[in-house]
Amino acid sequence: NNKVGAGRMTITESVPPERVVIRLEFTRPMRATNVTTFTFVPKGLEATDVTWSMDGNNGFVGKIFTLFMDMEKVVGKDFERGLEKLKAAAEHR
Prior knowledge:
The chain is of the alpha+beta class and 93 residues long. It is 33% helix and 43% strand.
């Protein structure tokens, strides 16, 4: 998908049923390495709260980028769509 750039992801930790940690390595449009964590908290027998976070360091270009871009607007819908797909997959099982 040319709209999202390129890179790879590696699962670095999986602690069922608590969390999954993924190392994201972006190669374009700009290089960056981030850690994404999915945290799962059971809520009763048929529900789970899921938190999806992404952490990393910004270099000079990344810092300039965030001054002019609202990251919630840039990736917020992708996070929501991803969580909706995760919910659908979990409920399908």
